[in-house]
Specification:
The protein is α/β, with parallel strands linked by helices and 277 residues long. It has two domains: 155 residues, Rossmann fold; 111 residues, Rossmann fold (3-Layer(aba) Sandwich), CATH 3.40.50.1860. Helices cover 39% and strands 17% of the residues. It is built from eleven helices and twelve strands. A six-stranded parallel sheet has the order 4-3-1-2-11-12. Strand 9, helix 9 and strand 10 form a beta-alpha-beta unit. The protein is globular.
């Protein structure tokens, strides 16, 4: 069983002012956020953590998942001493974001929540869907966002426990049948009195990797709202530029809680410029 005390520390750690940015996800979905964060913070070193031992999160009981994340971050913060943590997983942050900030008030955490506010601001039809994991869909946090920012919209919450594993398979080059993806996104499309859904919020960081497939299979065009850029912008505002430029030989790295990645996962992480040890 994975234990956070066994998390490896990154060798030759930089000075305190140049500590790395930690990007955390249940799997490889957070790579969408890492990609955007690198654009805005090219001088920073990144440590990407995939909790593949716990994936997928959508099926975890809430209390058990919160306890798991607190134990996991205790080890990560001790081993990596990051300047900032990006929790690039909607389910993880809606379940444990408040607990993480309470447990480590001196640490900076940037969370990932469904982009309901910008969706409500952009929709013309008033029909918005949120495509997420079952865990994110059932959280009071998500429903609170709807009450606060989208009270005038008709918001449909669509929970899929299959799309995140499909995205992981797709990224590894494995076949994912169109019919199965079409069945998962179909409930997002609503017609009401001549109006149609015009925005689908991607409420899981895995889903943007399937965005082109979603567009091809959608019954009509919609705006697939990807939160990755907004998350990266928020991280940039909280973290001043590093004191020194990143040394070319300093590699970003990936840590998998399940241990050594298989060949396909290692190839994927390496393609994002992440050393896997």
């Amino acid at each position: 069983m994975f234990h956070p005390d066994f998390l490896p520390a990154v060798p030759d750690a930089p000075p305190a002012s140049d500590r790395p940015v930690l990007v955390f996800d249940s799997g490889v979905g957070g790579l969408t956020v890492l990609r955007e964060a690198r654009v805005l913070m090219p001088e920073r070193r990144f440590v990407y953590v995939a909790d593949d031992a716990g994936f997928p999160y959508g099926r975890w009981p809430e209390e058990a998942l919160r306890d798991h994340l607190l134990r996991l971050f205790a080890g990560l913060l001790r081993a990596q001493d990051p300047a900032l943590c990006i929790v690039a997983c909607n389910t993880a942050f809606t379940v444990a974001g408040a607990a993480l900030r309470a447990a480590w008030p001196g640490r900076r955490f940037v969370g990932t929540v469904p982009a309901i506010k910008p969706a409500a601001e952009r929709t013309r039809s008033g029909l918005v869907s949120v495509l997420a994991t079952p865990g994110t869909v059932r959280r009071d946090y998500t429903r609170g966002l709807i009450r606060s920012y989208a009270a005038r919209c008709q918001v449909r919450l669509v929970g899929s426990d299959r799309l995140a594993p499909m995205a992981e398979a797709y990224l590894r080059g494995q076949p994912v049948p169109d019919a199965e993806i079409r069945a998962e996104i179909a409930p997002c499309f609503v017609e009401d009195g001549g109006a149609r859904t015009d925005i689908v919020v991607l409420g899981c960081t895995h889903y943007p990797f399937l965005a082109q497939v979603f567009r091809r299979l959608a019954p009509w065009p919609v705006d697939w709202l990807d939160p990755a850029e907004a998350i990266a912008r928020q991280a940039r505002t909280l973290l001043p530029a590093a004191a020194h430029a990143l040394h070319p030989e300093t590699a970003d790295c990936a840590i998998l809680t399940g241990g050594t990645p298989d060949f396909a996962t290692r190839r994927l992480l390496n393609s994002f410029g992440l050393a896997t040890g």
